[in-house]
Design goal:
Blueprint lengths: L1 H6 L11 E2 L5 E3 L12 E5 L10 E5 L14 E5 L1 H15 L24 E4 L2 E4 L14 H11 L4 E4 L9 H11 L4 E4 L1
Parallel strand pairs: 8-9
Antiparallel strand pairs: 1-2, 3-4, 4-5, 6-7
Helix pairs in contact: 3-4
Length: 191
């Protein structure tokens, strides 16, 4: 599979813990041991092309497996060069370089990733906010959790619909959703 992807000009990172040599052989298996599992899935499409108008991001919870498209998942495609650039920067941090050859020594994951920069973008007239977890060690990255809590507390006017694999009652986001629902301020709908 790796040879096929490389032949098509596609570079990828997955969370199986293996670092591959250019010939497809396993070079190292340190990613999982370093806590570098990746749950978020995304692809930057045409992000390296010379035409910024064709840049797209595919993102969501859908696993790229035989059953991924049949399970309870979501996906969204956004056509915007600035958003694609933010995702490309996020990818390059984990890849460790900005070319086709990964640099495991320069790769950064989880709290070692730097802040990508902007969070608020406009695609035509639609406001799109982009956040990458977790907060980095310096604390310069905004907290996704804090932003979601803020949106629910200050912007939700009628209802909150959500899709989540599991809800942990002790985290601030879950507590906020339950509190707002319990007061009757918002209707809560989830799957």
């Amino acid at each position: 599979m790796w040879a096929m992807l490389r032949g098509a000009g596609i570079i990828s990172i997955d969370d199986d813990g293996d670092v591959y040599e250019p010939d497809g052989n396993i070079a190292d298996n340190d990613l999982v041991n370093a806590g570098a599992d990746m749950h978020h899935k995304f692809a930057v499409i045409d992000g390296l092309s010379s035409t910024p108008n064709d840049d797209k991001v595919w993102t969501g919870s859908t696993n790229l497996t035989y059953t991924g498209a049949y399970n309870t998942n979501n996906t969204i495609i956004i056509k915007d060069s600035e958003i694609a650039s933010a995702y490309l920067h996020e990818f390059e941090q984990m890849w460790g370089d900005d070319d086709e050859t990964p640099d495991p020594a320069a790769s950064r994951y989880h709290k070692d990733k730097s802040y990508v920069g902007e969070n608020v973008y406009f695609v035509d007239d639609t406001k799109v906010e982009v956040y990458f977890s977790p907060i980095n060690r310096s604390g310069s990255k905004p907290s996704v959790m804090n932003r979601l809590v803020e949106v629910i507390r200050t912007e939700a006017q009628h209802d909150v619909g959500f899709q989540a694999f599991a809800i942990t009652p002790s985290i601030p986001l879950s507590r906020t959703i339950w509190q707002m629902s319990a007061t009757g301020d918002i209707e809560l709908n989830g799957v």
